[in-house]
Design goal:
Elements lengths: L1 H19 L11 H6 L12 H15 L3 H16 L2 H16 L2 H16 L2 H13 L2 H15 L3 H11 L2
């Protein structure tokens, strides 16, 4: 009988234990290094949602493991982000959220395409950007649809298509 009561109490307390992992963190609970890096947030720290506090703390841990070159790159990106107009930041956030809803295989494919694009010479990348910007929405849709069709061809079919276009 006592065992049942203990199990019942544990079942009732389980949701509270799960929420404890997301408990707010007091400023004094942070390490000296964490407080140093998060100093700009000290006055508003207690008003931040627990989830945000946890993310910031994880960010500090990642920051501590970065090389000086990586830190410089992160600072540069953050400064660039801060200079963006609010509307553009919102668009970037929306695109990121849309990207994160894609299946992992699709995200990997897109990352690889981006890496391939970055490996192109700067002038070629600029040409492609200009070509894209000059397209109408209808032309862009057609381009994307065509690209999807080509993506599913075998290498042999791609070569044949390439020969036909360049005759």
């Amino acid at each position: 009988m006592m065992t049942r009561a203990i199990v019942f109490v544990l079942i009732l307390l389980a949701p509270l234990a799960a929420m404890a992992g997301d408990a707010a963190i007091g400023w004094d609970e942070l390490s000296r290094q964490e407080r140093k890096l998060l100093a700009p947030l000290q006055d508003s720290w207690d008003t931040l949602p627990a989830e945000r506090q946890q993310r910031l703390r994880k960010g500090v841990a990642r920051w501590q493991h970065l090389s000086p070159e990586q830190r410089a790159r992160v600072k540069q990106r953050f400064e660039r982000w801060q200079r963006l107009p609010p509307q553009q930041r919102a668009r970037v956030r929306q695109r990121f959220e849309r990207f994160m809803t894609l299946p992992p295989a699709e995200r990997r494919r897109l990352r690889e395409q981006y890496r391939e694009f970055r490996r192109l010479p700067a002038e070629r990348r600029q040409q492609l950007r200009e070509r894209w910007r000059s397209m109408t929405p209808q032309q862009r849709r057609h381009f994307i649809e065509r690209r999807e069709q080509i993506r599913h061809l075998t290498p042999r079919q791609r070569r044949e298509l390439h020969r036909q276009r360049h005759r």
